[in-house]
Design goal:
By secondary structure, this protein is mainly alpha-helical. Helix content is 43%, strand content 6%. It is built from 7 helices and 2 strands, in the order αααααααββ. The longest helix has 12 residues.
């Protein structure tokens, strides 16, 4: 199933390809940080391609599906299938660019240090 949220992600990557060749190469983050989130969202709505976004979402080197695709493993990040009901395109784009800015309740990272000095990082699954 192709979900609408993948179109903004595909558009973000397509915006990089369209950057003028005369400028020195920049990272994806540097390029997108100079853009207004509202402008990126508008471009995504107008030019986004859900199928291309789906291809990017499932690329192993991007690791999106590793945390956000509960069908193929442990759900470490929020389910994005319903993101359209929960947030705007601007919210999704900002979450991709600055993933730690707003962490959805229940997905906060917890660091525990044992009395013998071992450290564990993870998500709280259950409290007793």
């Amino acid at each position: 199933m192709i979900r609408w949220f993948m179109a903004p992600l595909a558009s973000l990557f397509l915006l990089i390809v369209a950057a003028p060749a005369a400028e020195p190469p920049r990272t994806l983050q540097e390029t997108l940080a100079k853009e207004l989130v509202a402008d990126l969202a508008k471009s995504a709505r107008e030019q986004g391609e859900a199928a291309r976004g789906a291809l990017l979402f499932f690329q192993p080197f991007l690791t999106c599906a590793k945390c956000h695709d509960g069908e193929h493993g442990t759900q470490l990040g929020p389910d994005l299938a319903n993101v359209g009901r929960e947030g705007t395109a601007e919210y999704l784009i900002e979450s991709v660019l600055l993933p730690s800015k707003v962490v959805k309740k229940g997905y906060e990272t917890v660091v525990i240090t044992t009395t013998d000095g071992r450290t564990y990082t993870g998500l709280v699954v259950e409290e007793k």
